[in-house]
Amino acid sequence: MRYERILVRYGDLTLKGRNRGRFERQMEQQIKRALAPFTALTYTKIYGRLYIHLHEQAYEPVAERLKDVFGIISFSPVLAAKPELEAIREKALALMQEAVKQPSTFKVSARRTWKPFPHGSQEMNHLVGSHVLRAIPDLTVDVRNPDVQLNIDIQQEAAYLYNVTVPGAGGFPFGTNGKALLLLSGGIDSPVAGYMGLRKGLELEAVHFHSYPFTSQQAKDKVIELAKRLSYYAGAPFKLHMVSFTEMQTVLAQQKQDNLIITMMRRAMLRITEQLAGKYKAGGIVTGESLGQVASQTLGSMNVIGKACTLPLIKPLIMMDKNEIIHIAEQIGTFETSILPYEDCCTLFLPKSPSTNPNLGVVEKVEASIENYDQLLADAVASTDTIVLTPDEPLNAPAGESSPEDDWF
Amino acid sequence: MLYFDHCASTPPYDEVIQTLAEVMKAHYANPSSIHGAGLQADKLVERSRTVLAGATGTKPEEWLFTSGGTESNNLAVKGAAKFYRSRGNHIITTAIEHASVYDAYKQLEAEGFRVTYLPVNVTGHVDPGELQKQLSDDTILVSVMHVNNETGSVQPIAEIGRLLKDRPKTLFHVDAVQSIGKLPVDIKGWGIDLLTGSAHKLRGPKGVGFLYVREGLRLQPLQSGGSQEHALRAGTQNVPAIVAAAKAFRMTMSSAEERAEAMYALRSQLIKAIESIPELKLNGSADAMAAGAPMAPHIVNVSYPGMKPEVMVHMLEEAGIIASTKSACSSKDDKPSRVLLAMGLERAQASGGIRISFGDEHTPQDIKKLEDGLRAVVRRLKPLERG
C-alpha cells in the first residue's frame, strides 16, 4: 500500500510545562537524524506531533528505523484520499482489508476539519462504516471497545485515513536528561544498561578498560562493535573512551590481597571514570550491575565500591534477572557480540574466592599503601584513546578517517 | 584476438589485479592467527563480506567464501540435503543444471535420496507448474539455476520463490553464477535460501566462490578442519583473492544495469546475423524478452547440425575468434550436450552447440567481425557437411 505520510506522536504523556520546547526540538532533530538516509522525506510539525511526508519513499523501511527512536510514543501510516465521499470510502475499505489478521470489530472515527465538506462527522461514521461492513462479511461495529479504530481526518486538500497505531520505543529523546558515562565491558549487561540509559534520554559516552597485552585486540574490537550498536540507538555519533588499565591492574594484582582485587579494581575504575566525567562534563555513571549476580555486585561489595566516587551511580539492571537482561540484549542486537569468547580485564587475575563482603577499612588501607596510586589513576586517564562511532561505519576505520585500504574495496 | 568465452571466464578488471597484488604483498599473515597481522587479514575478509552484503541487501554474516562456484554448489546442495535429511528425503532440481549441481544430486540419489529432475521446454525453460506438481511434504530442497550456462535461458526464479514461500521446510537454492552482476537478483524478495556465485565470472580472480546462506540455516560441512567461514568451510581463506573478488563484485553490481542494456543490444545484433546464415540453428529463444522464455544478455548458443562443434571452434580460433563448445567444465567429453538434449533437440543439433558469450567491453564492430568469421567458416565447411 502507498502511504502518503506517517503521523508520529510523542510527548502526550511525558511532557511538562517549560521543558516542552526543548524536548520537541530535540525530538524532531533525532527523528530527522535517524531518517537522514531517506532523502525524499519532508516534515510538518504540529502540536506534540510530527507529520513525515513520504513522497516517493516506501513506508516500511522508514517505520523500521522509526521504531528505535527514543521519545516516540507511537506512529501511524496514513493514507490520503480526495476529499470526496466515494474516494474516502474506497480508501477506507482498502485500509481495512490490508490488515494481516482481520479484525472482528471496528469503529469509524471521522473528523471534519474542513467545514464545507457536505457530510458531518457522525454522518461520515455511518457512510464509511456501512460501506466497509457490506464489503467485509465477518466484521461488526463496536463503538466502545473495537479491535480497530479507523480514523478519518477530512481537510480541504485531502482526507487522511489510518487504522494502525504502531507502538514507538518510548522514553525520552537523546540528551534531554543530561549526560553520563557508561562503563562498557564486553559482556552482556553493560550494553543493555547503555540502551536503557539512552532510552531514558541520557547522552551517553562509553568508557572501556582494557589490559592489553593481557587482553587481546579482539576484546577491544568487540567493545567497538557493541558501541557501534549503541550509536544506532543514540541516533548520534557515539564516543567510546578506551582506557589502558594494565599498569593499575598489575599493581593491584601484586598487593597479595587476592580476595579484594576485584573490589579494588572496581574502585579504581570508578575513580578514573569520575575524572573523565569531570573532563567531559558528565553528571553520572551508568553501570550494568545487577544485584547478586557476581561477588562484586552484592550489596556489601556495592557499598564499598560505590564509596570510591561521589557522582550518582545509575544501575538500570539492578533488579533484573539474567534471563530478562539476555532477552533485551537479543532484541537490541548486542547479545551475539557480547558472547564472543574474548577475555576482558575483569576476568583477568580473577581470584578463586573474591570477597562478597569486603571490609572498607582494609581496602582503604591497602590502597593507601600503594605509593604512586594517584599517579596510576592520572596515567590511566591520560592514556585514554577516544574514538567516535556511527552505526554504519566499516570495521576498519573506527576513527572515521578513510584508510588506504579503502581503495581495495 | 576476440574473446567470446565470458561464460567460461572473464578478463579481470585492472583494479582487481592491482588489489590482488597489493593485498598479497601486504597481508600474507594467516587470517586465523591471533597476532595483529592476522587480525588485519581477518578484517579484510570480514570487510569483503560487508561489500557483498551491501550490494545485495543481505547481511555480511550470510556470505561465505569458498574456492569457486563448484564448491559453493556442492556445499549448498550436499550440505543442506544432509543436514536436513531428517525432515524429508525428496529433493528437486532441473535437467539443465551445471554439472556441479546436477552431479551433486546424482550423488545424493546414489545415497538414497529421491530426486526429481524437472524437464525444460524447447527454449530451455522450466515450468513452475511442473515444479508445483512435484512438491511433496517430503521435499526439503529445490535447486534451480538462474541463467543456464550453455544457452542463456533465464529461469523463473521469482515465480518459483513464490511457490516455495509457504513451505518453510523446503529450501530454495539458486545457482546464480552466470547471472549475478548481469541481471537483477533479488535474494530476499525472491525467497532464496542459498545462492551461489563465482568471482571469475564477474571479472574477479579465479579461486573465489560466494555462497549466500540465509540467516538461521545450517549446513553439513563438506570438509573437516578449522572453523573458518562460520565453521562451514574449513581451510585458510585466500585473503588477496577474496578482497579482489569483493572489489569485482562491487564494480560489477554497481554497473549491472547499463552493461545489461549494452549487451542486450549486442545480442540482438548477433541473433540477426545468425538468422541470416541458413546453416546455423539458434538454440533457445531468439527474442531475449519473450514472455515465458527470457534469455540472458551475454550468451548465445548456436548449432551447425552435422558439423562437429570442435571443428567450428578451432576454425574460428584460426580467424582470431575465441568461442567454446558447451560448458568449459564438460567440453572435453565427446557426448552431445545434456542441456540441449533436455530441450528436446535432435542429436545432430544437440551435438553441435557452440557457445558465444561476451562482455560489456565488446562493441558492435566486434560482433560484425564475429559474423564475418562465422560466415567464412560455414562457407569453408559447407562441402564437408555430413548426412
Sketch the major β-sheet of chain A.
Answer: 9 strands, mixed
What would you call the shape of chain A?
elongated
How would you state the average pLDDT of chain A, rounded? 90
State the major sheet of chain B.
Answer: 7 strands, mixed
Radius of gyration of chain A: 27 Å
| Largest two-chain interface | A-B, 11 and 18 residues
- Taken together, the total number of domains of chain A comes to 2
CATH class of the largest domain in chain A: Alpha Beta
Strand content of chain A: 15-25%
Count every helix of chain B, treating DSSP H or I runs of 4 or more residues as helices.
13
Strand content of chain B: 5-15%
Distance between the termini of chain B: 33 Å
Structural class of chain B: alpha/beta
Structural class of chain A: alpha/beta
Query: And the CATH topology of the largest domain in chain B?
Result: Aspartate Aminotransferase, domain 2
Family (chain A): Belongs to the ThiI family.
Pathway (chain A): Cofactor biosynthesis; thiamine diphosphate biosynthesis
Main location (chain A): cytoplasm
InterPro entries (chain A): Rossmann-like_a/b/a_fold, ThiI_AANH, ThiI_fer, ThiI_N, THUMP_dom, THUMP_ThiI, tRNA_STrfase, tRNA_sulfurtransferase_ThiI
